[in-house]
Description:
The chain has a domain at about 55-185: Sandwich (Jelly Rolls). It has helices spanning about 1-20, 190-195, 200-210, 210-220; strands spanning about 75-80, 95-100, 105-110, 115-125, 125-130, 145-150, 155, 160-165, 170-180, 185, 225-230. It contains 4 helices and 11 strands, in the order H-E-E-E-E-E-E-E-E-E-E-H-H-H-E. Helix 3 crosses helix 4. A 6-stranded mixed beta sheet has the order 7-4-9-2-1-11, with no helix packed on it. A 5-stranded antiparallel beta sheet has the order 6-5-8-3-10. It is α+β, with helices and mostly antiparallel strands and about 230 residues long. Belongs to the germin family.
Amino acid sequence: MAFRFHIAAAILALVFTIVHASDPSPLQDFCVAVPDANAGVFVNGKICKDPKLVEAKDFFFPGLKEPGSTSNPLGSNVTAVNVNQIPGLNTLGVSLARIDFAPYGLNPPHTHPRATEILVVLEGTLLVGFVTSNPGMNMKNKLFTKVLNPGDVFVFPEGLIHFQFNKGHSSAVAFAGLSSQNPGVITIANAVFGSKPPISRDVLTKAFQVDKNVVKYLQSQFWRDNHYYP
């Protein structure tokens, strides 16, 4: 019995060692290996400043009280504050954003590949939601949606497609916290129909089951990014 216990303990120790040795979650889309260190860049964070040279301003960002411009076809503006705006966020795994909405403005369906998002509404009324990842055979992706009023909070799990829509007659404001210093964002329509070079129309026609002229029209549109990085 004691022998079996020791064998089981050894196996568990090996498993936990392997799990602990796994690669950390990346903070960028990809990292291609290069043989020459001088040709590379630092990944999973930025190079650290000498602690003796750190100042209060390294942890500070002004101006989020000012609304972002919503004068665009989407009627929304996301002012992102991440490690590029606050160097002191490096390695801390958190960032935030202010989201402004014109009446009926939309923060279109998008994902954050490296972060969960928690959103709180300050002004206005927002219709928000996210869609689950692909389920089993013959099952549909499930939509979780809610109407939010000032003071309401909603969570969007990491990597899932989500959106926010101002369904009110007045402007709306929300703040979002994200669980990464560099959460990334993929706006679905922009990525699919506005990539450079473009995705083959044969691929998109087959994928969306529409006429090729519909794909041609969508690819000809100017796909606007509503994110602003001060």
